[in-house]
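Structure representation.

___
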Amino acid sequence: MSDMTTPFSARVRAASADAHETAESQRYVSALLAGELDIAGYAALVVQHHAIYAALEAAGDRLRDDPLAGPFVDDALIRLPALEADLRHLIGPDWADSAAQTPATIAYVDRIRAVCTASPERFIAHHYTRYLGDLSGGLHIGRSVARHYGLDGAGVAFYRFDDIPRPKVYKDAYRARLDALPLDEAAANALLSEVLVAYQHNTDVFAALAGHAPADGGTLTTAAAA
């Protein structure tokens, strides 16, 4: 690869820093963290996450034995059962009947299905963007959501990783796997570019949910304040 001195995980992080910041700065995210949404506004995000993780984890199942992608597939990361439990709590047992995916989410899911199974390095890009984010800022989001919306366990199970008691240790090991990937320049560039694609899809999903946030920064929620 062109840069042999910088660990590949550091290259990925540096290349996606601006895209990461853009996703996190979306109005929906700030409203979520400030407790400005109602429960339906929060549940709308959980619906989108369910569709995204269903696609990503299905791809992971198909790639468990792949020499490149397989080492990243870990049952400790699986989010789909937690998301379904959250949706049952937030919406009810018939949540699937009323769960509406935004066009942005549909596009995200279509991208995962289109590239991940055929391109293990692109699967790793989507895997990295989702799960390392979940184990970083996602843990902070989970605590904020639980506090603002009066949720304890049920409703925020997505943000709990009971089988990963030490997230930093896990993330360090994950980045070491990235650094050890036997990628040629084309594969490395494919992974780097797909991380940016994944972040753009995340930004689009948040933007599509912006209508749930009050435009003036006021509060819509009747849940307990922090």
Q: What stands out?
A: Confidence is low (pLDDT under 50) at residues 219-226. The longest helix spans residues 39-62.
